[in-house]
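Problem statement: downstream parser choked on a complex file, so we are re-checking the raw output for the TNX run. The parser issue turned out to be on our end (a line-ending mismatch), but while we're here, posting the original submission so the record is complete.
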Amino acid sequence: MPTTPPTSPETGLEPTGLPVHRPSAADLARVAARAAGELLAPPAPVRLGDVVPAPASVAADPAADFTLPADAVIQVSADPAARDVAVQLAELLRPATGHPLPVTELPPGGDGLALTLTGVTPDTGTPAADTDTAAPATGGQTRTTTGSVAADDLGDEGYRLDVTPAAVRITAGTAAGLFHGVQTLRQLLPAAIESRTPVDARWVVPGGVIVDRPRFPYRGAMLDVARHFFPVADVLRVIDHLARYKLNHLHLHLTDDQGWRIAVDSWPALAPVGGATEVGGGPGGHYTAADYRRIVRYAARRHVTVVPEIDLPGHTNAALVAYPELAPGKVAPPPYTGTEVGFSYVDPADERTYDFVADVLGEVAALTPGPWLHIGGDEAFKVKGAAYTGFVERTQRIVAATGKTVVGWHQIAPAAHTADRVLQWWGTNGDDPETAEAVRRGARLILSPGNHAYLDMKYAPDTPVGHDWAGLIDVRRAYDWDPGAHLAGVPAEAVLGVEAPLWTESVTTRAEVEFMLFPRLPALAELAWSPRATHDWAGFRDRLAGHGPRWSIAGITFHRSPEVPWPAERTADDRPTARPVPTQPGPDDAETAAPTAATTDG
Ligand code: TNX
């Protein structure tokens, strides 16, 4: 507020300070927007440690808060992948702040900068030397070091965030690390940053230093697009949710009894015939190669790797409807829209089956830039013993010939080891000698225990969607287990990571997907990212609570789990008119506007 009476003609005030005009509509709008912004901003600034997943190391300095000025500039090193992270940061911050936030190249020795991404040396996995020029946090510093990460040991995905009154600086050895640092910065701003329309808030970032890197390299979620089909826009939105919580893999369950969801040129009836059904009899659908490329490209820009699954030899009714020659007895089964499992299989005794497997896996591998190819292998109840292991071993060799690394559900454990293979544990008893033995022979493990990580399980008996065969999974159950010590006889070193599968027999809409994901997905993301030393239910619950308003503003549907102390949402009576109405917009096509989306889809 001015302290002396304005005299300028532009203000409309006489030297006496008396107004000669009524305030303009624009002035009134500005005042209203500011008032709205103050109401929207949380009563206290976000604390530096209020991040999900919990960072490895947090040293708060309350004397060093940074306020984003309207003329802030995002400066970034010349590396194209780093520049794209800066562009994405600008895209995240512009809608709510209304600030232009131009992205410019970092000048040598640049100082006093608003936001700086520095130090990227691509593909080395180590941070560049002498990049950490930020002033160390001083004065009134409170240190909460919960894990230990040296600033020079950020690895492939770590980052360092320095917040001082003069600058916010993110330093990383890779663009992925910068991207994760940007997600942390996003959470440190007031919740109103999630608004898609301008909010006149004070954009304060709490002062101090975070040094952070993940516990496990594989952090993922699975979406079953076979039981119910989800259009590309829904998948892109799920990728956004993953990226927010530093998850870096999206497993797509592309085929099952109820639908085949990916176009295959060499077997052209698979998608249009096998994809025309879904659970409950709806129209189904499938992704064209262009759709799939778009998903992969969108994910890559957010440092998420797509893991495609072609479920074999069971869960194949939809393929058999399209190609009866693959069926035992060569008779086409009727299309299936129920929810039973374990009845269908491709004939392991017919050579034509292996042409099919090689053609399909070859095409899917060629469309997929990531290293993984998931072959399912679960619940093939009718292919037993040597017929099953023989089929899996041959399929593993076919995967190896595509240059990909094989992933399969843990039922493939008895098949012979093949280089680098990965088993995905979905059991519920934490004990399986066959899986432990496969690990001793060299397999690595992704942990998706059904009784902790299955996001299709209900939260409580009255949850309107979902199953309960693996038990009820409330937020605490999703959070309270240790992936490093979960499976008997499997050492932490064999654990590649954690994945949260969402099966969709009962999940039919985008809102239902989000309802099952939130708030459990962030709980599982924290298990996958944060050092075990940070594990603390009470602390997690409190940090998680602050995300409710963010999801509301972003239009994300979530379950208001009674275990989490959600802050009261404002009621209509005291809500400023500028409060954004929650909507569920699809992700935009910003990736096509970006100059340097990391993609290899050609
Ligand atoms: C088991 S988990 C399955 C899926 C079902 C799911 C339902 C696994 C590898 N197979 O086919 O959709 O249970 O919860």
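For whoever reads this later: The mean pLDDT is 85.
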